[in-house]
Amino acid sequence: MSVKQEEVNFARNEQSETTMMPGKFATAMRTNLIWQFIRFVIINLKMLVVVSKSH
User: Fold this and answer.
1) pLDDT digits over 35-55, tens only?
2) Which residues lie below 8 Å from residue 13, measured CB to CB, with a gap of 6+?
3) How far is residue 11 from each of residues 8, 16, 22, 30, 36, measured CA to CA in Å?
4) How many CA atoms lie within 13 A of 7 on its CB side?
C-alpha cells in the first residue's frame, strides 16, 4: 500500500480515523529544553506587551 506524501504525518488511532502525528523536527523541538526556554521568554514578553497596553 502506497502512502501519499501529504499523509505521512497521519496515523490510525482508536479515537480517530486520522490523527496528525508530529514529525521528527516537531518532536525534537518539543523535547529540546533550550528551545522550550526561548519560547517561554518570547511568550512572556508578548504577555507583558499585551498587559502593558491594557493598563
Assistant:
1) 999 999 999 999 999 999 986
2) 19
3) 8, 9, 10, 19, 26
4) 8
